[in-house]
Amino acid sequence: xxxxxxxxxxxxxxxxxxxxxxxxxxxxxxxxxxxxxxxxxxxxxxxxxxxxxxxxxxxxxxxxxxxxxxxxxxxxxxxxxxxxxxxxxxxxxxxxxxxxxxxxxxxxxxxxxxxxxxxxxxxxxxxxxxxxxxxxxxxxxxxxxxxxxxxxxxxxxxxxxxxxxxxxxxxxxxxxxxxxxxxxxxxxxxxxxxxxxxxxxxxx
Length: 204
Fold this sequence. Notes:
This protein is mostly helical. The protein folds into two domains: 10-62, Homeodomain-like (Arc Repressor Mutant, subunit A, Orthogonal Bundle), CATH 1.10.10; 68-200, Orthogonal Bundle (Tetracycline Repressor, domain 2), CATH 1.10.357.10. It has nine helices and no strands.
């Protein structure tokens, strides 16, 4: 649950300058966590990089852990928003699933630092539940599409939640293998992920 420090109440609504400062902390921390690792990076490293004191940090975040949690939550929301934009005004459920898969692959390539942090978070019990929750939300987005596709005979009957997790697992793991390798083409990875997933559910 968000605290007053990382989700300001109306009484402590941030000024434009405060919002900018908070954004600077998040952006620098994201870069440092991705390049140096979560554990080696200290609050001092973050504030020194911005040229401010620790009091500034603790005005916005109660701890390094709270900051990292906020980064994860923002990343997951941004990914879902990207998928929703990609599938907007696309009535066919199979097309929507394909566009969603492609959007997720491209999001990871465009936000490599965040992809790396999500990969780390799933291995740390303090943060793994946030990754699980985020993936459950993505699957929940896919379930109605899978159900619709089954109703219209576009794919064979099955358990839509299980199929959603299977598709997510394939596309996520395939992307993580290649996202940090130099010279990889996100379109090519998206092609493989979409084709494999749609074949797997019987859409092709």
